């Protein structure tokens, strides 16, 4: 009987040591999982930032392509309505592009810059009206 009790105690001590060992391993695994969770969160943040940046660049590239297309259309003789409809440009931008193209082609003279006060007589007075 004593021998059986000693064997059971030895088995219990062995089982306790195994439980302690497994608990230690479980804590290590939990620690690794927490670290991996943090890494995953960091990677998700990076991916989200990169996706936002990609969308920004795609939008900027789309704008650039529209202006390139509008420039080409102006060079080929497109009118203001074509620019507005095809390139989705506001009227003021379409007018500006047409005006610039005419000036570049030499069809319209660019007025010289002058800082002489006498030249200001052609313009209405500036400032507040009383």
TrEMBL record:
* Keyword Coiled coil (UniProt): yes
Q: Please give the superkingdom of this protein's source.
A: Bacteria
Organism classification? Bacteria, Pseudomonadati, Pseudomonadota, Gammaproteobacteria, Vibrionales
This chain belongs to which protein, by name? DNA repair protein
Q: Which Pfam families match?
A: DUF2802 (PF10975)
Residue ranges annotated as coiled coil are 5-60
| Region of interest (Disordered), ranges | 107-130
Q: What keyword terms does UniProt attach to this protein?
A: Coiled coil
What species was this sequence derived from?
Vibrio parahaemolyticus
């Amino acid at each position: 009987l004593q021998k059986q009790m000693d064997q059971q105690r030895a088995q219990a001590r062995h089982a306790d040591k195994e439980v302690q060992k497994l608990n230690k391993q479980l804590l290590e695994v939990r620690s690794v999982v927490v670290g991996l969770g943090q890494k995953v969160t960091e990677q998700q943040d990076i991916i989200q930032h990169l996706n936002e940046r990609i969308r920004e660049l795609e939008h900027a590239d789309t704008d650039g392509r529209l202006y390139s297309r509008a420039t080409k259309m102006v060079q080929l003789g497109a009118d203001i309505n074509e620019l507005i409809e095809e390139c989705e440009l506001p009227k003021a931008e379409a007018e500006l592009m047409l005006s610039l193209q005419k000036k570049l082609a030499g069809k319209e003279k660019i007025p010289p810059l002058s800082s002489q006060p006498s030249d200001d007589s052609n313009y209405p007075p500036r400032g507040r009206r009383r």
